[in-house]
Amino acid sequence: MPEQTEVRLPDGVRLHVEVAGAADAGVTVILLHGWTLDGRSWHRQLAALDEVLGASVRLVAYDARGHGRSSCMPLPTATLAQLGDDLAAVLDAVAPTGRVVLVGHSMGGMTIMEYAHRHPDHFAARAAGLAFVSTTAEGHTHTVYGLSPRIARLIRLAETTGAGVLARCGAWRPPRALLRALRPSIRWLLFGDRCDPTDIRLVTSAVARASLRSIGGFRASIGAQHRLETLAALAHLPAVALVGDKDRLTPPPCAESIAAALPATELTVCPGAGHMLMMERPDEVNDALLAVLRQVLDPDGPGGPAGTTPGAPPAADRAPA
Question: Does domain 3-297 match CATH 3.40.50.1820?
Answer without folding.
Answer: yes
